[in-house]
Give the backbone structure.
Amino acid sequence: MAVAVPPGGAGGSGWAWRPVVRDALLARAFHSCTELRGRFYLVGGLLAGGAKEPSSDTVAFDPAGGQAVKVEARDGPKRSHHDAAPKTQLRPEYLHIHSYKEEGCHTASRSGHCAALLQTPGPHPAHQLLLFGGCNSAEPEVAGHWSYGKIKEEPPVAPRLMEQLARLVSSGQGSRQGPWGLRHHSCSVVGPFAVLFGGETLTRSRDTICNDLYIYDTRKSSSLWFHFPCADRGLKRVGHRTCLWNDQLYLVGGFGEDGKTASPQLCPGIEDLLDPGEIERDLQHWSWQEMARSSSTEAPEPEE
């Protein structure tokens, strides 16, 4: 494990991922990563570029203890390029299928895209299911719509992270146009923000793996994109995941710049616009001694 030194606080470049844990069990791409009861569960994926078949294993990672273990599970299918979601995240009694409106016009075929359920602004917010990327387009597509009161969400509580993202976008220049031709990126919803990172671009034939951060801000009627480039080529990722836990966003796995080597790193995101003291406190949370104290934690087998 290594804790990176912060680059200089308040005049920084915006957002940075700090590698703090290295574990071979995390080295995979095109897997799913789901937070459940304080642990990340990684399922399947490709363990190396060019792999002939995906993995069938399940790995549980304890972010508080810094330990990854394989979970003994019943034989399951080998899978990659899939997704997973805990059933507790959206309460089904509030999801009325008859109130779902599918959009009549789908303008693009997609592969390698992501979907995000976001609220519309205003005193009576509705919900929209938006598709990002996966085609030669820069525009998100509305795949479905629920009117006010039809969905009761139980979103993760992340007030500090939402404050950081709001401060981050206030330092940037918004645009109506998002990333063009992006696929196999990560996407996490944090309150009114959709946070996209990395992926593969369809706009060039070389150097296609990206390390850019995009934030889609829906707080106003005209949603805006904010783009934050990253200078660290070691953080180029494709087929990775981001996962929200304990008011912080984590980057897990994915292939690196060559599109073949799976990253064994876990990287929490840290806002470079924080003052140096806040950055240092964030990094101190990831001290080796703190992780070692919790390293004996056993990972529970997921319930049916």
User: Anything to note?
Assistant: The CA atoms of residues 252 and 266 lie 5 Å apart. Residues 159-170 form the longest helix (12 residues). Residues 1-12, 89-98, 286-298 have pLDDT under 50 and may be disordered. DSSP finds three helices and 19 strands in the chain.
